[in-house]
Every structure is written in structure tokens, then in C-alpha cells.
Design brief:
Layout: H1 2-20, H2 31-43, H3 60-74, H4 79-90, H5 105-134, H6 142-158
Length: 159
């Protein structure tokens, strides 16, 4: 009897997950609008989840944005008009690929600047190592060289 109750409980838990799944269906007047809807919903970021696009998010605001996107597409708005509206309302953050300009210049240029900085550090490190390898005694002062020589002489006498 306990086994039967456990199995029933497990089945109920597994089936309850499907009840929480979000199923939204929108009727589109053309397949082209549906394709644009899919493309735009994957490009727009959920303001609440921040790491999911509105197509994948179950947050209420993502549901609202999907509904708004559907309405705007059916009303005949262009992709740019829709993106401009979303940016005006939620900020440039709502786009996974923000526009180049203004406040996003650093965002777009940061990878290139970091790569150039890394190359500069690497070249400086290699140059300093090459100088030391060419003349290892040049990095020591006369006093340090004399001290090193006495230590070497002492170790040779001890062995």
C-alpha cells in the first residue's frame, strides 16, 4: 500500500510540472509575421529575468511583451518601430544587440580595447624577459654581483 501511495505521489508531482508550463498561441495573418515575431522575441531581453529573451521567459512582463509584440506586428509596425518603442519604454538593455552609439560605444569597443591592452602587456613582458636573457648580470648592481660571487665561492668550498 505504501508503494502504491508513493507511486501516485510521484506521478502527481511529475504531472503538476506540465500544469505550470506556459502555452501561448497567437494567430498571425501571415507566416512572414510569425517569422518576424519569432526573430524579434528572441532578440528582446526580458526586463525581469535579464538573462533570458522574452521567448524563453515565463515572467509576467515577458508575457505582456510577447502580447504587445504580437499586437504591434498585426498593426503593421516595422521591426525598427517595434524596437524603438521597446527601447524607449525599457531602455537599451532590452535589446540583446544594442545599437552602436552614445552610451553603448564602450560596450561595443570593450572587447577590442581589452585585446589591445592584453597584447601590449604581453609585448612588454616579452621585451623585459628578452633584456634579462641577453644580459643576466645587467640586472644586478656591482654590490649584488660581489655578494653573489662570495656566496658561490662559499658554497663551492663547503661542498
Amino acid at each position: 500500500m505504501r508503494l502504491l501511495c508513493s507511486l501516485v505521489a510521484i506521478c502527481l508531482v511529475l504531472l503538476s510540472g506540465r500544469a505550470l508550463a506556459l502555452i501561448e498561441t497567437y494567430e498571425f495573418s501571415s507566416p512572414a509575421l510569425e517569422a518576424r515575431y519569432q526573430q524579434l522575441s528572441e532578440e528582446l531581453r526580458c526586463p525581469k529575468c535579464q538573462n533570458q529573451n522574452i521567448a524563453d521567459s515565463n515572467a509576467p512582463i515577458a508575457q505582456d511583451l510577447r502580447k504587445l509584440l504580437h499586437q504591434q506586428l498585426e498593426a503593421g509596425a516595422s521591426d525598427e518601430e517595434i524596437l524603438d518603442y521597446m527601447v524607449a519604454r525599457y531602455g537599451e538593455f532590452v535589446r540583446y544587440r544594442p545599437r552602436f552609439g552614445g552610451t553603448t560605444v564602450l560596450l561595443w569597443l570593450a572587447p577590442v580595447l581589452l585585446l589591445l591592452a592584453a597584447i601590449g602587456v604581453l609585448l612588454a613582458t616579452l621585451r623585459s624577459r628578452a633584456k634579462v636573457a641577453d644580459n643576466p648580470d645587467a640586472s644586478l648592481t656591482a654590490a649584488e654581483q660581489a655578494r653573489l660571487q662570495t656566496m658561490l665561492d662559499k658554497s663551492e668550498r663547503d661542498s
